[in-house]
Here is the input.
Amino acid sequence: MERTTINLRDDMQELARLRDLVDALGRKQGWSAQVLGDVQLALEESATNVIHYAFRTGGAAPALAGEHEFAVRLDCTGEELTVELEDDGPPFDPLALPPPDFESPLEEMRVGGWGIHLVRQVMDETAYRRQDGKNLLILKKRLTGTAR
Here is the structure.
C-alpha cells in the first residue's frame, strides 16, 4: 500500500501541485490513461469546490478569516485508490445536492452541482461524513478489472 498526503492552501494555483502528485502516483502504479484522467478530473473538481466554497462567503456561514489549508490523502493498494479530502469549513455535504436536471432548457438549468455530478460519474464510490468538526469527502476508484 502506498499512502500520500498533501496539504493545500485555499488557492487555485495549488491545483498544479495536486495534479503533479497524482500524475507521479499514477505513473508509479501503472494506471491506465482512463483511470488517471478520471482521478485527475474528480480531484480537480473536488478540490476546486473546497477552495471556492469551504472558506468563502456565499454559503450559509460567513467566510472564515485568514488563509486556510485542506488535506488530500491518497491510499493506493494497487487494486483500489481511496482519496480523502478533509477541510475545516462549515458542514457541507456535496453529495446531498440533487443531480443536474438534464430535461430543463439550458437557460433554466440550476447553476452548481455539475462538478460533483462528474465526480460521481468517474469514481466508483463517493461518501461524505462530518468527523471531528471537519468535512470528509471520500472517493474510491478501482484500478484493475474495470472499463472505467
DSSP finds three helices and five strands in the chain. Residues 93 and 124 are 18 Å apart (CA to CA).
